[in-house]
Every structure is written in C-alpha cells, then in structure tokens.
C-alpha cells in the first residue's frame, strides 16, 4: 500500500445533496434528521410549554449568559466534586450543542492545516467543522462490528503528522496525539 494522502475538505456540495435528498419522493433520507417530518408535539408537551411560558416568559425566550447558567454550572461542579473530581464551576464550559463543543475541543489541540483522522463513515457535520477550521481530514475505515481498523490507523499515524483523531464508537472520543 502506498502513501495515504490527506484531502482538503470541501463538503458543501455533499451537504447540499444530503439536504436535497430529504425532499426526494419515495425515499427515506437517513443522512440527516428532519424535524419537518416529525410528529407535532403531543398535548402534554404543549401544556408544559404553556406552563413554563406563563411562569418565566422572559427567561424562556431570551438568551442566557454566554458562559452558561451560573446555578447549573455550580450544581454540575458539586456533582463532580461528590464523585471525587477536583473542579470549580468556573472550569465548566457550557455550549449550545455538540457541534460547538467539538469545535472548542478541536481548536484546543489543533491548528489550521493540521491533519485530523476521522472514521469513515462519519457525521458530515464533523467534516464541515474540520473544513471551516482550515484543517485536513484523513479517513480511516470503520467496521460496524469491530470499530476503527487499528492496523490502518497505525499506518496513517506512521505516515502523517496526525494531530488528533475523532471516533464515535458508542460515544464521541477525541484522541489527541
């Protein structure tokens, strides 16, 4: 096997194809979750929404602090401390979703033009994130039963200056090299 090559990621057209597939007749688009096709909320959820809005209308529809709700961060820190983790509530970073958390994690360990190993197949949002940060992705085959191909990963790491690896076996893992 020859030298594996990295690719500059340009996935915009692929993402557009995935979104267009949502509207194809007689097909089920498995490449994206589509809330448009989800069932409307049931009556219990509607009641809960009305209750929250009646009690805390202003807070329920406005943005919270950038670094997260202070009470939530303090309670999370207490829970970790009860488990023996030495953490302060100021050490906790709250994000507005997984994609933001992945971005922060990746920016902590890698820079523009660095090589990031990803499993193949992977979540297309991860490819878009790597592209937006100016990094390069290198795919490593992943089997549904055995996970990432360890032999191929070892070859990739020997042949390239890999900065980090993103794998998602049962949960997302960021491996920093």
Q: State the low-pLDDT regions, or none.
A: none
At the fold tier of CATH, the topology name of the largest domain is: Aspartate Aminotransferase, domain 2
- Oligomeric nature of the chains: single chain
**Radius of gyration over alpha carbons?**
21 Å
How large is the share of residues in beta strands? 15-25%
Distance between the termini: 23 Å
Mass-distribution shape: extended
Order of helices and strands: EHHHHEHEEHEE
* Largest β sheet strand count, sense and barrel closure: 6 strands, mixed
Could you name the CATH class of the largest domain? Alpha Beta
Helix vs. strand class: alpha/beta
How would you describe what is shown here?
The protein is built from six helices and six strands; from the N terminus they run βααααβαββαββ. With 177 residues, the chain is α/β, with parallel strands linked by helices. The protein has two domains: 43-94, no CATH class; 96-177, Type I PLP-dependent aspartate aminotransferase-like (Major domain) (Aspartate Aminotransferase, domain 2, 3-Layer(aba) Sandwich), CATH 3.40.640. Strands 1, 2, 3, 4, 5 and 6 form a six-stranded mixed beta sheet that branches. 14% of the residues are buried.
Features:
6 helices; Aspartate Aminotransferase, domain 2; single chain; 177 residues; alpha/beta; 6 strands; 6-stranded mixed beta sheet; 2 domains
List the helices and strands and how they pair.
Layout (H helix, E strand, L loop, with lengths): L6 E2 L3 H10 L21 H18 L9 H13 L15 H12 L5 E6 L3 H9 L3 E8 L3 E2 L1 H10 L2 E6 L5 E4 L1
Parallel strand pairs: 2-3, 2-5
Antiparallel strand pairs: 1-3, 3-4, 5-6
Helix pairs in contact: 4-5
């Amino acid at each position: 096997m020859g030298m594996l090559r990295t690719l500059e990621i340009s996935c915009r057209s692929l993402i557009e194809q995935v979104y267009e597939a949502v509207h194809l007749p007689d097909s089920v688009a498995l490449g994206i979750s589509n809330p448009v096709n989800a069932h409307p909320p049931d009556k219990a959820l509607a009641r809960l929404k009305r209750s929250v809005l009646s009690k805390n209308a202003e807070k329920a529809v406005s943005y919270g602090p950038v670094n997260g709700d202070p009470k939530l961060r303090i309670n999370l820190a207490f829970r970790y401390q009860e488990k023996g983790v030495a953490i302060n509530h100021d050490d906790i970073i709250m994000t507005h979703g997984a994609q933001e958390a992945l971005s922060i994690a990746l920016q902590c360990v890698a820079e523009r033009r660095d090589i990031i190993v990803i499993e193949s197949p992977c979540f297309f949002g991860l490819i878009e994130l790597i592209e937006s940060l100016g990094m390069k992705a290198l795919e490593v085959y992943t089997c549904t039963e055995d996970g990432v191909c360890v032999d191929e990963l070892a070859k990739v790491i020997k042949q390239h200056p890999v900065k980090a690896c993103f794998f998602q076996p049962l949960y997302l893992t960021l491996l920093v090299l």
